[in-house]
Amino acid sequence: xxxxxxxxxxxxxxxxxxxxxxxxxxxxxxxxxxxxxxxxxxxxxxxxxxxxxxxxxxxxxxxxxxxxxxxxxxxxxxxxxxxxxxxxxxxxxxxxxxxxxxxxxxxxxxxxxxxxxxxxxxxxxxxxxxxxxxxxxxxxxxxxxxxxxxxxxxxxxxxxxxxxxxxxxxxxxxxxxxxxxxxxxxxxxxxxxxxxxxxxxxxxxxxxxxxxxxxxxxxxxxxxxxxxxxxxxxxxxxxxxxxxxxxxxxxxxxxxxxxxxxxxxxxxxxxxxxxxxxxxxxxxxxxxxxxxxxxxxxxxxxxxxxxxxxxxxxxxxxxxxxxxxxxxxxxxxxxxxxxxxxxxxxxxxxxxxxxxxxxxxxxxxxxxxxxxxxxxxxxxxxxxxxxxxxxxxxxxxxxxxxxxxxxxxxxxxxxxx
Amino acid sequence: xxxxxxxxxxxxxxxxxxxxxxxxxxxxxxxxxxxxxxxxxxxxxxxxxxxxxxxxxxxxxxxxxxxxxxxxxxxxxxxxxxxxxxxxxxxxxxxxxxxxxxxxxxxxxxxxxxxxxxxxxxxxxxxxxxxxxxxxxxxxxxxxxxxxxxxxxxxxxxxxxxxxxxxxxxxxxxxxxxxxxxxxxxxxxxxxxxxxxxxxxxxxxxxxxxxxxxxxxxxxxxxxxxxxxxxxxxxxxxxxxxxxxxxxxxxxxxxxxxxxxxxxxxxxxxxxxxxxxxxxxxxxxxxxxxxxxxxxxxxxxxxxxxxxxxxxxxxxxxxxxxxxxxxxxxxxxxxxxxxxxxxxxxxxxxxxxxxxxxxxxxxxxxxxxxxxxxxxxxxxxxxxxxxxxxxxxxxxxxxxxxxxxxxxxxxxxxxxx
DNA sequence: TGCACTTTGGCAACAGCGTTGCGAAAGTGG
DNA sequence: CCACTTTCGCAACGCTGTTGCCAAAGTGCA
Lengths: 417, 417
Description:
The structure is a homodimer.
Chain A: H1 46-51, H2 59-77, E1 82-83, H3 84-91, H4 95-107, E2 111-116, E3 126-130, E4 136-142, E5 146-153, E6 158-165, H5 172-193, E7 202-206, E8 210-211, E9 216-217, H6 231-239, E10 243-247, H7 248-258, E11 265-270, E12 274-280, E13 283-285, H8 315-324, H9 328-346, E14 350-354, H10 356-360, H11 362-379, E15 389-391, H12 398-411
Parallel strand pairs in A: 4-7, 7-10, 11-14, 14-15
Antiparallel strand pairs in A: 1-3, 2-3, 4-5, 5-6, 8-9, 11-12, 12-13
Chain B binds a DNA duplex through helix 2 and helix 4.
């Protein structure tokens, strides 16, 4: 039902990566071709992809942009729905344009009526809502010791889930087999239980570093054997649907951005390591090399204790050392100083905390970080007050859900950054 | 000749701030009304302006977007010009669409023929170029001890300039009078020497903090009497043209972004203080409160020496202390550590150095910062190598030129961030 | 109960965008 | 001089959002 939004440049777009021949349901098919580690897309200079994209806007691009925007407004409104006039006001379009767009969305099965509003003296407004079942995506969280697969609908609701223990160091074949198996299971469960259209694709989130634009892993921390592995293309070839790969922190941040966190914010995740997902102006910021978010190896103590990365005085080293001593307050303070540096540099609207270590003792961390940010704001005389600190919502499934949003986001017009 | 790009929402847009009745050339007119500190625009909640702007795209918006894009490509091509087919390829539009757009630009006096290319076996391509004289903007750099005003054409070339000593602490009236005087002088010089269309407006860059969206100053460092002064609206009322206000570091960064520096980069300015201008994806990042770029008060030495801001161990304090001891190498090293934190956090493409202190001894700073970034990159095993460090080009006029780009940028489709 | 009024939202005509088909213009090369 | 290539404008077209208009569906007062 849902097609990926057409950007109007379908004339010379490279073919969908590994989409291969659509032999019925391609799920669970044996690999019809095994791309070697070097068989990726045509090598494109990353600089080109960033510095000057063809920014000319087509009528087709305009159409899909506005349709995606209206769809996003419908999604944001939730099950209560929105009226056409409200959509028009929020989108900055005329009511008649919205009428045409919503008529198309209804024809495509993406939207439907949802009752009417109370009259204000005239004809009551007809309320529209998204049909969440019109599209699905798979989100995979490939963690160091666990694999989690979720199936979510257009609304972002989880409609299927599986977990399995897994070691990232068990070798590519073992990990891929486990991943493909769990994904297939989740999908066949959903297919058995009800009507399910073909999924839009699979998003995979895992610890970095990696190249998001090409979907190639670099040396995953602690598992150098993955270096250079073209995960996206291998998975796309085996699954027969589009695959997107991203860092776990970015996926989590994307999930929050889609889930209602507006503006610019940073999610700090403290677990085996310390990383950050950055959202700037509602867009996940990855950087040209998918290297953004290196929060943990920010130096906040010149010539401080040696960190595993080779530098001295990194936030991560100080924070984990404090945790090793059982000094949560100091760990939170150190984290707060790093967060204050980040907040000052980017003028973000919120700091969100997550990760296993923080979830084990949320309150002292949130308070400790807030205290540092408050102190900085007061000393610098900020008129807006300190950046608010909150716990990142979503729990243990957040990364997998965010991974699914790597596919759902474009449907609602979200750009990558 | 040049009208500001129409975004298609001119139905309910607030009137151009202080544009007033156009009584001939409004320059140098006595103030016909003096807006008090509270007579600004209708107060708009900053959250709204950031979190959800009406993103629906109009046919009018599409038209002006594509026209601005083509104009930008013409500007980038320089005096040699570009052919229609090249424009079409770069813009992602069909040649025929480009023909129509360039025909309009030629009618409006913004573009013209510039010879032809050598034939490749058929009709030779006609080359088009921008007409730089079709539009101008004024850039003002309001520094602590000096005032600099430049007049630039569409190409960004400086066609008029004036300097005057000035103390920001001399009081609002004195500073405003000096500013208005110099601006009027620059314009009348240009009017006398040749044909000059009415300028697009005036961009003013000064040390922060301030509110870029409203054009209101906060407590300019060291000059608390400016707190809350609505500089944009006051100047707009007196000059009768649009005015945009921004931090000096942001203006400088914008100037570099327009001047050819692509992608994402940071400009670090070391003078009486230490600040940064951030460009992320070709867009200046200011943050919702125009607070981004607080590079100098990044803490890199927990419990270090006290800084003027009240915190301890700020880069600025350490850097300036080292300079006070004459230890340029240590200052560069400290600066480099801060730059490494920034580069890791944002995955930027380049670090540019500027400011009076650095220009006094450029080579040791560039080398010292590069050494630190190299060391970090090597230790972390970056496959792309270290972030390149360069001197920010442009010299002493860079900030004023960038201020003028605050007005020119929108003509070429540059969004604010 | 009936009528005036308000508000919503679809139908139809329209202006204007980029696209396509086609041909004139302006070169090269034999 | 002619065949060929390439550029680029004119004209028709499809599709976008916009405007004008009117039916539909309520409220509220007589």
